[in-house]
Amino acid sequence: MINENNPGSFGSSRGLSKKIKKDKKRKSSSTRWLGRQLNDPYVLETKKRGYKSRAAFKLLQINDKYNFLLPGLSVIDLGCAPGGWLQIASEKVSSISGHEKVLGVDILKTEYIPGCKSIIGDINDKNVGEQLIKLLGQKPDIVLSDMAANTTGHRQTDHIRTTYLLEIALDFSIENLNNNGVFLAKCFKGGTEKEALDLIQKNFSKVHHVKPDASRKESVEEYVIALGFKGK
Ligand SMILES: C[S@@+](CC[C@H](N)C(=O)[O-])C[C@H]1O[C@@H](n2cnc3c(N)ncnc32)[C@H](O)[C@@H]1O
Fold first, then answer.
1. pTM of the predicted model over 0.70
2. CA separation for the pair 173, 194 (Å, rounded)
3. What is the per-residue pLDDT across 126-170, written as a single tens digit (0 to 9) for each?
4. 71 and 176 inside one domain
5. How many domains does the chain have?
C-alpha cells in the first residue's frame, strides 16, 4: 500500500520469510541471492508499480526527505539504465509545458521511458558530457549519479572503482550545473572518497549523507546529496 505523503514507503510484507530449498545444481551464492529477492518487499513493490528497477525506491526515499525534484527543473542522470531513477525524476519534475527535461546516459541501452531521453555513452568520454548538455539544451538543475562499476567481490577494488565514478560525476557537475543546483551521487564508504567529499563541501552550501531504507543494510553503499551549488 502506497503512503501518499511518503511515496517511497509502503505497508511492507517484511517478516513473511520464504525459505529456498537447496538445489545441488545451484551455487550456494545463487541460493542466497534468490532468497534475498523472494523475501525483499522492494522487489515485489517494484513489479507492482512497474518500475524498471528496485533502485527507484532509493531515489523516492531520498526525495521524500530532501524534496529537491521539483516541477520544471532539468535533470541529468548518469548511469541511468535500466531506468528506475529516470521514471521517478520524470514523474516529479514534469510540468504542464510537457517539455522533456530529463536526460540519462549509460554504457548500456535504456529502454524508452515516457518523458525522458537517454543516450548510450561512457561518461569518462568528455564528448559524451558535451553531448548531454547539447541535447538538454541548457545547464541541468540537478545531476544524479547512481553509477557503479561491476563488482569484483574484492571490497577495496570495488570501492576504488566506484569512487572514481563519483569523481567523474562530480567533475561533470562542477563543470555544468546551474547555480544553486543539486548533486546526488552513490558513494561507497571505504577511505578514498575523502578527496571527492572535500571538493563537494567546497562547492555546495549543504551536504548530507544518506542511506535510504531501500539500500541494503549489508552494503557499503550510501548516497551524498549536495544542495546549493555555489557556481563555477
Ligand atoms: C546501479 S545501476 C543504475 C540503476 C539506475 N539508477 C536505475 O534506477 O535503474 C548503475 C549503472 O551505472 C552504469 N555505468 C557504470 N559506469 C558507467 C560509465 N562510465 N558511464 C555511464 N554509465 C556507467 C552501469 O552500466 C549501470 O547501468
1. yes
2. 17
3. 999 999 999 999 999 999 999 998 888 888 888 899 999 999 999
4. yes
5. 2
Q: Is residue 167 located within the same domain as residue 127? A: yes
Q: How far is the CA of 145 from the centre of ligand 1 (A)?
A: 8
Domain span at 86:
56-229
Q: Probe ligand 1: pick from 146, 168, 186, 223, max atoms within 8 Å of CB?
A: 146
Do both 32 and 68 map to the same domain?
no
24, 104, 186, 230 from 116: Cα distances, Å: 44, 8, 21, 27
Q: Please check whether residues 178 and 97 belong to one and the same domain.
A: yes
Position 189, amino acid:
K
- Our answer on whether the CB atom of 124 is closer than 6 Å to any ligand 1 atom is yes
Q: Does 105 contact ligand 1 (Cβ within 6 A)?
A: yes
Q: What is the pLDDT of residues 195-210, one digit of tens each?
A: 999 999 999 999 999 9
Cα distance between residue 72 and residue 92, in whole Å: 9
